[in-house]
Amino acid sequence: MKWFCLIVAALVSIPVHASAREAIEIKLTSKATKFPSDAPVDLVVTFTNVSGSPVRLLGYHTPVLEGIEADILTVSLGDKPVEYMGRLYKRAAPTDRDYLTLKPGESISGVASLWDNYDLAVSGTYSIQYKTEIFSPQSDKEFAVSNVITLDIEGREPRPNPDDLEDETKIVSGNNEKFKGCSDSQKSAIIAAREHALNYADDAYDYLVAGNVTSRYTTWFGAYDSSRYGTVRENFREIRDAVDNEDIKFFCNCNKSAYAYVIPWENFKVHLCKAFWPAPMTGNDSKAGTLIHEISHFWRTASTRDIEYGHSAAQNLAVTKPNKAIKNADSHEYFAEATPYSPYNPCAPTVTSHTGAPITAGWDGANCHVMNVPAGLTSFVHNNAYYVNALPGTSCPAPSGWDTANCYILPYPSWSTSYFVWSGNLYLTPGPGNACPPPSSFDGANCYVMPLPWGSTPFKHANNLYITPPPSCPIGGYDGAHCLVGTAPASRTAFIWGSSFYYSH
């Protein structure tokens, strides 16, 4: 029996006249069926061109060159899929040099190590198949597949990545990063890239919290769907927090042609490779964007995968399979890079004033300065909004007047009456014949006196009707207790420093 792969251009390039189903046979074999906990679990994957024409395979979708470099196997324990724990690379879109060519009848093989790349912590019978998803507009179920083999594997801890074994004498600490094997110029480039990556992450998160759905979103994540949008927003919250706060370890010892790689369960270790150093600091496929891409892979952040590489493939993924786009690392990078790139203003999100009008903050070199608080006022933050204390008022709205203590309205008439508040207005019950003492007037049911100002209370004293003067707000508007000045952007944290309102970068 033969096992054949369904071929599309993303994985295999064949002449148009060749039959895809007859192009290549993929066979998975193992020298043993039982593996104790200290034994490597190495499988051989053999690709044979069974067509009459040359066939090209994408090299890093095979273990032929340097073992497993992507999630190319489907591994399960019983009916539960097993997590891929191997390297996730940031790569450029594939070019001719990334392909392997098989002549008719030619075979090539590679060794695929399960222990180094899949979670084998639990003892049991594992099923393994070479089964790489192929993404095309025509189908969600196109795969390159092999036979399925079953192995009895004794559980074991993952083997450490030899590239990041930590000789502490070679780890150099920065502010909230550490370096291994990095020159001074490389350290400077990494620190600058991280600062720009934080700007990218802030900008992306601000955009998503505001609920924007423009071509910037749809280009990389497809048509709007509230669930998918929420997933991307949460992904960028986690990415932003990691870029800003985590102690990231950078390793400058990768000689691969890729930009960088991470092992997703090893939070937060980033290996920088050859393509990283000549990349621009910002813009398309930049140093800063590479950090967004790699940090999105970690299980602690967004747990993205490398489904498609490059702008064209990522854009096509957004159109044809948006459910995959929201899991694709390059899609997150290109959205964050805001392609084409424009410099990020860290104080672009505006404060919403008490009137609903925007208040623009200014960058002070560390945070966003909103405004100075007038002297003599008590300022505070509540529910991410800025407040000051209200002051006793002396201004009385017409028809009331200030009597040095309260707002006098009218003397009660000789006939008995009472006052009440309804729908924000002050009323009196009318007298005989619907009589209403001036300055009140009959409205068909009661004696309308005046709108009751917010924060004011009516009362009767010495047979006269009064209201308490509304509290005064030197800035902001009275909310029934204090003066609301404005609300900070939802993606930022409001705070007070010195005598000013700020929000965090």
From TrEMBL:
- Report the Pfam families cross-referenced here: Aspzincin_M35
Q: Name one GO biological process term.
A: proteolysis
Q: Sorted alphabetically, which SMART domains does this protein's record hold?
A: Aspzincin_M35
Coiled-coil segments, which residues?
Answer: none
Q: Which UniProt keywords apply?
A: Hydrolase, Metal-binding, Metalloprotease, Protease, Signal, Zinc
Citing just one GO molecular function, the answer is:
metal ion binding
Q: Which residues form the Lysine-specific metallo-endopeptidase domain?
A: 206-337
Q: What's the cofactor?
A: Zn(2+)
Which positions make up the signal peptide? 1-20
Name the PANTHER family for this protein.
NEUTRAL PROTEASE 2-RELATED, PTHR37016
Family assignment?
A: Belongs to the peptidase M35 family.
Q: Tell me what this protein is called.
A: Lysine-specific metallo-endopeptidase domain-containing protein
Organism of origin is: Corallococcus interemptor
